[in-house]
Amino acid sequence: MSDAMLKKYIRFNIKIFPMYIVLSFLLFAAIFLGEDGGAYINGVSTAIIQLVILALIPNIIYLIMNRNESGNFLGFLGMIPIIPVPFVVIAVIMGVVYV
């Protein structure tokens, strides 16, 4: 049952993926504008933590909206380790291109 809910969470996060991309580029651009040379890793890791917390908010709302479905909490817990992946990929690409 939790596999079906995990698929629902993945579909939900794909729908709001453009929001993730915009937030990522905004935060990472702010890091580049304020960077003084060697603090890219520190700034990006802080930004990724902030982005994961922001990305959890819609997922918590989705968890509450679907609280009566079986396997909902397991689907939510399965989604938590997947959420930072696009942010880390974007950070690596921006680090290679800009730094």
Architecture overview:
- The protein is an all-alpha fold and 99 residues long.
- Helix content is 82%, strand content 0%.
- The chain is built from five helices and no strands.
- The chain has helices spanning 2-15, 17-34, 40-65, 72-79, 84-98.
- Helix 3 packs antiparallel against helix 5.
- The longest helix is centred in the middle third of the chain and has 26 residues, at 40-65.
- It is elongated, with a radius of gyration of 15 Å.
- The mean pLDDT is 83.
Summed up:
The chain has 99 residues and is mostly helical. It is built from five helices and no strands. The longest helix is centred in the middle third of the chain and has 26 residues, at 40-65.
Strand and helix layout:
Layout: H1 2-15, H2 17-34, H3 40-65, H4 72-79, H5 84-98
Can you tell me the residue ranges where pLDDT is under 50 for at least 5 consecutive residues?
A: none
* Average pLDDT figure: 83
Cα distance spanning the termini: 44 Å
Beta-strand share of residues:
under 5%
Major sheet size, sense and barrel closure: none
Taking Cα atoms only, what radius of gyration do you get, to the nearest Å? Answer: 15 Å
**Overall shape:** elongated
Task: Report the total helices.
Answer: 5
Structural class: mainly alpha
What fraction, in percent, of the residue positions are helical?
over 70%
Number of strands: 0
Oligomer state equals single chain
**Secondary-structure element pattern, one letter each:** HHHHH
